[in-house]
Predict the 3D structure of the following.
Amino acid sequence: MREGYIHLNPDQIPTSWYNIQADLPEPLPPPLDPSTSKPINPKLLERIFAKELIRQEVSQECYIKIPDEVLDVYLTLPRPTPLYRAKRLEKFLKTPAQIYFKCENFSPTGSHKTNTALAQAYYNKKQGTERLVTETGAGQWGTALALSCALFELNCRIYMVRASYQQKPGRRIIAQLYGAEMFPSPSDKTNFGRKLLKENSNHPGTLGIAISEAIEDTLTDEKTRYSLGSVLNHVLMHQTIIGLEAKKQFEILGTYPDVVCGCIGGGSNYAGFGFPFMMDKLKGKTDTEFVACESKAVPHTTKGTYTYDFGDTAMMTPLLKMLTIGHGYACPPIHAGGLRYHGMAPAISYLIHKGYMRSIAYGQTEVFEAAKILAETEGMIPAPETSHSLKFVIDEALRCKKTGEKKIIAMNYSGHGLLDLTAYEQFLSGKLVDYEPEKIEVPTIVK
Ligand SMILES: Cc1ncc(COP(=O)(O)O)c(C=O)c1O
């Protein structure tokens, strides 16, 4: 077979999402109510999330049917997305390994985030929600939710980390074009935002602060619900359409990946791509290696602690058992805004903690160097987040060159970097700064 792009026909699109909770050797530690340190009653979350999403969050069903209305929109993104064999990159690296990218960069907003944004907007619309509120870092998630709200006719309000709001207007403008209200966070719209602005009127903001503001806002209006772009089980599950499609594409090729990799911010793109393959590992059917890539500036899984922590800075969320560097961690201003989050999805944290997968951290200069190689060989300009796993792919392919291994390396190409050109300009002019925390303090919240 001649390889390049491997396509699926529209009628080959998976019609259910995969729920890894059904296949884990034990249930994930439950979310806790911070006031009692006891498992939270899912009913309590109904004021924040759509009911169906809470049901999915704790579901143990192996597959959950994708509603027809969501499938119809998936097809117009378009989905299925192609699987691409990067032969020119292989040739440049002189590696016997084969390199495949699952192309989530083709979505209208440029990343995988639409896969869950559409599902969340749909379920909210169905139950009568009028407005969705969320936070966004560099804007990938915000644009995806803004688009989904436009398509399902919901109002949308987004708290965007102030540093990105000011320095990276591209995605803010896109979300505004879709009709979303955009506020720089910390903002003067919430008590928490006003308190922080009083301390520092030019506070740069963090994702954890923006989450706190979005939740506070949600609680002020009965017809409003909150939407999260990563971390939670239901979000990861909606992304599994990526890996389910990729499995069919590898089946067409008559092969199976030896290494499955991707970057991790909150964990959704990695889970979306990796979990359908991890299903086979959990059932003892494959010894494929699973590798997640993060930033050295935010080393939540390589230097974090597996413990209960808050999901936001103002300590408003339930406690999640996860690998965390602490909800108060001041994430340095790296360009991969989507990787600037203190915690990791409980499901991925569990799999790393138990040794089913591993993680690795990179500095942003080496990551941008990897992206430059891809641009020169394949003409593709990856998102800075995506480039973290590209760095691993290149290193692994070079390792295979030394050992002669003909490994099949599969990576989720989670987004394009065409709205990140100021970051690339800084790289080209040698102005990128690498960060690493000197000290990480993770508070013990549950004894
Ligand atoms: C292109 C891209 N890849 C990866 C991520 C990381 O997030 P997650 O780990 O939830 O996929 C983001 C987050 O915004 C992103 O925009």
